[in-house]
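Notes from hallway chat w/ T.B., transcribed later so I don't forget. T.B. wanted the structure written out for a chain they're using in a teaching module, and asked if we could keep both sequence and structure tokens in one place. Agreed to drop them here.
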Amino acid sequence: MASFCSIMNMPCISKTAYYQQLGNVLKAVEAEAEKEMNKVATRLRQKLRDNGQNVGDDDIIDVAVSFDGTWAKRGFTSQSGLVFVISVDTGEVLDTYVLNKHCPKCSIKKAQCGDDAGEFEEWRVEHMSAGECDINFTGSSPAMEAEGAVTLWSRSIAKPKMRYKWMLSDGDSKAFNAVEYVYGNGCVVEKLDCVGHVQKRMGKALLNLKSTTKGRLSDGKTIGGRGRLTDGKIKDIQRQYGLAIRQNTISHPNPTEKEVDVAVYAIKKNIIALLNHSVQMANIAKQHRFCPPGEKS
């Protein structure tokens, strides 16, 4: 901005004025986002009503959400992080939370005070008591995700009047352990695994098996090579493994225990069919006994 103003022969805005305008824009964006997320909660309630659930406007409902976090930059040195929850049923954002380890106003004031630490501390106390300091987290950057999850889960009952009972997240998320008992023993948060991440882990396990298995197997051949466990074969098995899960998922919310048992049995049967289909057996009928009927199975 200073370079542009210099070229145009214009006075440049001061840092103080710039941050004041930035604060005004931020307040407007946050207010609009708050209104939109309230509408999202209303639409989610209506969808549950359309699916036959007796849900009132003031009832606390149990919902499934997707949770994830991100940082301002890669690595473990980011000063800012963002976490959010998305409704699994509507695909819309229900709540967000920003974590900061840095405050621009504090940095500017500290530079102005120089070596006078007393003046800065006196200003900082007033700054924090006025609620103007952006710093709301003091731990390590990787720990932001778990801390943010606790904040979102803790305020879910008061804010959208919901309990995030089912948590869908990536496989390496540590946030689940932080929120599992946030509602007490009366409502334990359950972890749902993303099919894509489950599929990815299965493929990675086969790749690790291939790389760590040396020498010849009991049939006198190596684990890899033509007609064996090649990278292409692993990708095919990985794709079919994910398909076996996706084809038997339950689309409607709050399924019965019987529906879950039937879906799990169908998933297991399809995965066993995939395993038998991928290996060579002397008895062809036994090898394909779990495969679905039809030429395109």
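Follow-up for T.B.: Residues 15-50 form the longest helix (36 residues). Might be a good example for the class.
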